[in-house]
UniProtKB/TrEMBL annotation:
YjeF C-terminal domain boundaries: 223-493
Positions with a binding annotation for AMP: 412-416, 441
Protein's name according to its UniProt entry: Bifunctional NAD(P)H-hydrate repair enzyme
Domain of life: Bacteria
UniProt KW Electron transport keyword: no
Family designation: Belongs to the NnrE/AIBP family.
Assembly and binders: Homotetramer.
Cofactor (UniProt): K(+); Mg(2+)
Function: Catalyzes the dehydration of the S-form of NAD(P)HX at the expense of ADP, which is converted to AMP. Together with NAD(P)HX epimerase, which catalyzes the epimerization of the S- and R-forms, the enzyme allows the repair of both epimers of NAD(P)HX, a damaged form of NAD(P)H that is a result of enzymatic or heat-dependent hydration. Catalyzes the epimerization of the S- and R-forms of NAD(P)HX, a damaged form of NAD(P)H that is a result of enzymatic or heat-dependent hydration. This is a prerequisite for the S-specific NAD(P)H-hydrate dehydratase to allow the repair of both epimers of NAD(P)HX.
Reaction catalyzed: (6R)-NADPHX = (6S)-NADPHX; (6S)-NADHX + ADP = AMP + phosphate + NADH + H(+); (6R)-NADHX = (6S)-NADHX; (6S)-NADPHX + ADP = AMP + phosphate + NADPH + H(+)
Gene3D superfamilies from the UniProt entry: 3.40.1190.20, YjeF N-terminal domain
Organism whose genome encodes this protein: Ciceribacter lividus
Length: 493
């Protein structure tokens, strides 16, 4: 699924197992800590060469050990360094105790730290493994640093961020830069953790990557490495029907725009033929705006049955502007029974809020051919128990939802998670804030539908669609609208 190593993600617990496996294989674990701390010091000096003082905050575990190494390295360059420790450093054990014993700087208790103008903070208190609320002394220093507006370089992950979920555990530093090791963690990409990390640098401290692969959790950063091999290839023999037929259902006369956005996006994403299936009352409104996209009146279940007689009409988008009710449910059921592939979005999702299992059962007995695109509220309508469980991360929720629905799930947001029924999952990181605009979700549904029409499997189509959506937004610029976003969809650049 993933080529190379830059897009790998490991949870903190899995990374801990990798560290243990490295030590068990005979690798000097303190040597790894030395490399980590030296990498932090190098990043700090590179980013803040003019700092008046480096303030290193060390915690009671191995993250603190990295901090002691960094403090020593900074001191050896002649830089002014102040060191503050949380907890009694005399109780440190193992590599962290060794790192502290080799650090020539006399530390002071964390609650005595008073940041001053010109300071650069090195946060080595907790790192990625925190799973409880930060103690008051840490919350206090977070507040003092924040109020002083001082730059922070975090070791592994800003203290206060849960590395598995990205949740703020009471309080958390807002880092300018984060140095992590071997792979990023989910908390570097999931919100709100991502907003606390600043720029993220992943440093290879020398653990053989085979040990990382052995603990791999089938979780990656979304990008072409994950789906490019599944993308369709065009050649001289290509024609429009070979590139697939996508149909987008329109709403009534006053709700046609969303379907046209999705249809235009599907055409731009490469579908050979795109049709808007419109209720009769909306045919005139749609006809006035459509050019390359075709138009067909599909009003009733009987109309849909006639439309499905053409086997080339294989992929559908239902939901944008369609309306919530029995008609949506009936159309989805008919498409499922006919073996069609479907992107279910917006109103189409909400239509099944009272009986989600009816939707899941309709698509249960096949290779995944359903893509669900819920935002937070829509997700809670289909999966209320998952949405309400605070122990689950966004990745956990998306994976369990995908397995339950036998669907590729795009759990939307600035940190969209894409999950497959078999447990594969991706976290997307390229969506700019400008995508928070009316109609952008309709465009995403159309892109995914256009890729499905070309034969891309459901999970890969969902993942590629999300990434291409963000990529188009980046190139469209901050003033994008849904209409202009479509013009920047380009998987060939």
């Amino acid at each position: 699924m993933a080529r190379g190593h830059c897009n790998w993600l490991l949870t903190p617990s899995a990374m801990g197992e990798v560290d243990a496996a490295a030590a068990a294989s005979g690798i000097d674990s303190y040597g790894l800590m030395e490399k980590a701390g030296q990498a932090v010091a190098a990043a700090v000096l590179r980013l803040f060469p003019g700092a008046e003082r480096f303030v290193v905050l060390c915690g009671p575990g191995n993250n603190g050990g990295d901090g002691y190494v960094a403090a020593r390295a900074l001191h050896e360059t002649g830089a002014p360094v102040a060191l503050f420790h949380f907890g009694d450093p005399a109780t440190l054990k193992g590599d962290a105790a060794t790192a502290r014993s080799r650090c020539p700087i006399e530390g002071a208790p964390l609650d005595t730290c008073r940041p001053a103008p010109g300071d650069v903070i090195v946060d080595a208190i907790f790192g990625a493994g925190l799973a409880r609320a930060v103690p008051p002394a840490v919350a206090d220093i977070v507040q003092r640093v924040d109020e002083a507006g001082l730059p922070v370089v975090a070791v592994d992950l800003p203290s206060g961020i849960d590395g598995r979920t990205g949740v703020v555990m009471g309080a958390a530093f807002r880092a300018r830069h984060t140095v992590t090791f071997m792979t990023r963690k989910p908390g570097h990409l999931l919100l709100p953790g991502r907003m606390h990390c600043g720029s993220v640098e992943t440093f290879d401290i020398g653990i053989p990557f085979r040990l990382v692969e052995a603990k791999g959790e089938r979780l990656f950063v979304n990008g072409p490495e994950a789906w490019d091999a599944a993308m369709p290839q065009t050649d001289a023999a290509a024609h429009k029907f070979r590139r697939g037929h996508l149909t987008v259902f329109s709403g009534g006369a006053a709700a046609t725009g969303a379907a046209r956005l999705a249809a235009a996006a599907g055409l731009r994403a490469g579908a050979g033929v795109v049709t808007v299936a419109s209720p009769k009352e909306a045919v005139a409104a749609n006809a006035a705006h459509l050019t390359a996209v075709m138009l067909k009146a599909v009003e009733t279940e009987s109309d849909l049955a006639d439309y499905l007689h053409d086997e080339r009409r294989s992929v559908f988008v239902l939901g944008p502007g369609f309306g919530v009710g029995a008609k949506a449910r009936a159309f989805v059921t008919a498409l499922a029974a006919a073996g069609r592939r479907l992107v279910l979005d917006a109103d189409g999702i909400t239509a099944f809020a009272e009986d989600p299992q009816a939707l899941f059962s309709a698509f249960a007995d096949s290779v995944p051919r359903l893509v669900l695109t819920p935002h937070e509220g829509e997700f809670a309508r289909l999966f209320p128990d998952l949405a309400a469980d605070p122990a689950l991360s966004k990745v956990d929720r998306a994976r369990q939802a995908a397995a339950r629905a036998n669907a590729a799930v795009i759990y939307k947001g600035a940190d969209s998670v894409i999950a497959a029924p078999d447990g594969r999952a991706l976290i997307n990181g390229n969506a700019p804030p400008s995508l928070a605009t009316a109609g952008s979700g309709d465009v995403l549904a159309g892109i995914v539908g256009g890729l499905l029409a070309q034969g891309v499997p459901a999970f890969e189509a969902a993942a590629a669609g999300v990434w291409l959506h963000g990529d188009a937004a980046q190139r469209a610029g901050a003033g994008l609208t849904a209409e202009t976003l479509i013009n920047h969809i380009d998987r060939w650049h």
